[in-house]
Amino acid sequence: MAVTKVVMPKLSDAMEGGKIIKWLKKEGDRINGGDILAEVETDKADVEMEAFGAGVLRKILVPAGESAPIGALIGVIAEPGDDIAALVASAPAGVGAAPPPRPAAVTPSAPVAPVARPAAVVSAPAAFPAGPGQGAQAGRVKASPLAKKIAAQSGVDLRLIQGSGPGGRIIRRDVEAAGSGTAAAMPVAVPAAVSGAEFEDVPLTQIRAAIARRMPLSKAPVPHFYVTSEVAMDPAWELREQLNALEGQPKISVNDLVIRACALALLKHPGVNASLQGDAIRVYHRAHIGIAVALDDGLITPVLRDCHAKPLAQIAVEARDLVERARHRKLRAQELSGATFSISNLGMFDVAEFSAIINPPEGAILAVGSVRRVPVVDDTGLGVGRRMLLTISCDHRVMDGAMGARFLQDVKRLLEEPLRLLV
Amino acid sequence: MATHKFDVAVVGTGPGGYVAAIRCAQLGLSVATVEDDRPGGVCLNWGCIPTKALLRNAEVVSLMGHAADYGIRLSGFEASYPEAVQRSRRVADRMAKGVEFLFRKNKITLFPGRGTLKARNVVEVKGTGGGAETLEARAVILATGSEPKSLPGVTIDEKTVISSNGAVRNEQAPKSIAVVGAGAVGVEFADVFASYGVQVTLLEALPRVVPVEDEEVSKELTRTFTRRGITIKTGVKVASVKPGGPGAVVDLGGEKLEVEQVLMAVGRAAKVAGLGLEGLGVQLERGFVKVSPTMETSVKGIYAIGDMAGAPLLAHKAMAEGVVAAEAIAGKSPRPVDYGNVPSCTYCHPQIASIGSTEARAREAGREVSVGRFPFTANGKAVALGETEGFIKVVADKATGEILGVHIIGPEATEIIHEFAVGRTLEATLEEIIHTIHAHPTLSEAALEATLAALGQAIHI
């Protein structure tokens, strides 16, 4: 069996190096592909690093507590008989200068399936106005100039693509294939909760192709539009208090209700659960919802998978777990990518209303304001009610105003008739 | 009958075959080649190379005619057409000898004769000097090329009605000639004959000369050819060619043309007959051998490259395919030929070169394009050379700056095109070209300027 180099993976866009918090395997341990080798501290989060090859962890080159630049050799996996002396000798001593970083995090050994996924990718913060493509150009992704331009314009993340050009260079074909779903694009491991296809690719109509081509020129690279709606939260508030009064039941937050409402609405409005991929719109059949979590020094968006198939209580438990681990930077790499839609909630900061920036390649993001007690006028006169403002940001290349509005209308109805969230 | 065993047998030693053979040898395979003419095929012996020699003669003759422009007064000169043909033969001989040398250097065995497939891995060679030999090979590469086509009812006798084969051999230039077909072959011979004072009528069934090129290139060529005294008739169908007048009468369905010779340049057909393809079930498609991206035919172990494997019928495309086939046979995984990025070159005066889509085809494909043009009249080197005809036209995708096509007509067009070929291979956009410093003064500066023009930034116009 071939020798597998363990190198410091590129775990986020801005990452230049990472610190080994601790090795979970020691020299001599047998390693299977997918085993967690070590915990790595990056600028964004503490991430568990998986093994790609199988064999024996023959050598640890960067001990716990030390840092290494991305691409640097930090360990070697091989069979006991393999000669790794030359490889080990080639590694720079300790933290010093590293070989030029490579786009692939780990070189897989022969019998391992071609690596069709990055070791870990931290999603760009949902509420950060970071233009996609920016990172691609500034980063160390090896791609042709044309591939970079097309990726920037179609919202394809070059870091998620494996290049088929000479030396693994990403060329136009790779970006386009990633867009149309035939590519080396990498679905992150998904629980087999739901059967059926993960998505379908609907060919662009003429008018949609024209919109897709022109919109980025007006507001590059993702043309946003925003739709805001006010939700009467009194029934939901009441229901939540009743649920939370039940013994032995998990506590439900307003955000859990919003997640559940969005998941159900996304199933009904697949056009919103969609993303532009080159010359096709990828319509997802599952709702993987990114939950923006504010950290002291930034923002991270862990992904709650298959929300459409999970009851409210399960959403509440899993979301709480994700958020807590996000705050403690204990997320697994695969929990940081693969969202089809995102929710950003600034309600806890008493924000009435805001607009969020879409996290490409997702097609939309919902910004949730606080539930406020406001004067309301109804048939009986002036009273006091609980109201919440929701603002959806949509990628105009993928959907139009009415689609976003209809989706929001359904979210509003689900929240205003909250028993629907329980069935 | 002796049987010889090789790793690879290559049938045909034109630019596809000899390159495939050499690449196979480089990769450590034992190689036999089969050839019933001289090594080098049509390209070296009867096509590309000798015609380029003739065109160089044509250029020199034209230059002599313009000597006074350079302040050189000649008291008359004599341009001998027979000697031009003889020179072109010497050039061809030298190149063919070069191939023989390369075969020896790479230890490639040449079997003179006609090859026929007897089985998937057996080639029978009927020797040029009688006798037969049998080659057994793990893989066979067919590279038998193509031959000139004619029109229905028009027989090529290579005397009055000639093909390119006759045109490069005939040592006597006619007084008048009708060239049927204004593709690359037609316009090149029209150029040669016109330079030697032959009265040339260029006939084309389609609405314009060099019909595969960009429309603006056709217009420019029509302008310069007409000025040189070549009669051009487009959109005309040749109804018949009959003996009569000074040699032949060409009936254009009403108008009759009396000429000494007729050159048929209406295209080429793959040479697939007599190779034993039918018996082995090698599939054809529209007269060409059907091949996979690694040049393998429908029969495992039999490869086909070059003209016989389909368009474009160009020597450099054949060479590229030869390399792919050789590497596939040697167990490598070669990068398939990128048929969308094959430069096309015509060596008439002014030269024509192009790569990628024409403006019209790019628009038909639904691309929103930006177009940049730069005339050689505004290029210092071209003015100094006294070669200011023509222009460079760059067609790019408006949104991404992808270089969709480049069309050049003008001095050394066939050399200038390659920066765009490299650029397209590397997926460069307009920006990478404009950020590349082009030496001054060069004709290639026009390439930079045309690229700048596509972005609305041309400096020198």
What does this structure look like?
Chain A starts with a strand and ends in a 7-residue tail after the last helix. Chain A has nine helices and 19 strands. With 423 residues, chain A is of the alpha+beta class. Chain A has a six-stranded mixed sheet with strand order 10-19-18-17-13-16. A four-stranded antiparallel sheet of chain A has the order 1-8-6-3, with no helix packed on it. Chain A has a four-stranded antiparallel sheet with strand order 5-4-2-7, with no helix packed on it. In chain A, helix 7 (254-268) crosses helix 8. Chain B contains 15 helices and 23 strands. Chain B has a five-stranded mixed barrel with strand order 1-2-3-4-5. In chain B, strands 7-14-8-9-10 form a five-stranded parallel sheet. Chain B starts with a strand and ends in a 7-residue tail after the last helix. The chains are: A alpha+beta (423), B alpha/beta (461). Chains A and B meet through helix 3 and helix 5 of A and loops of B.
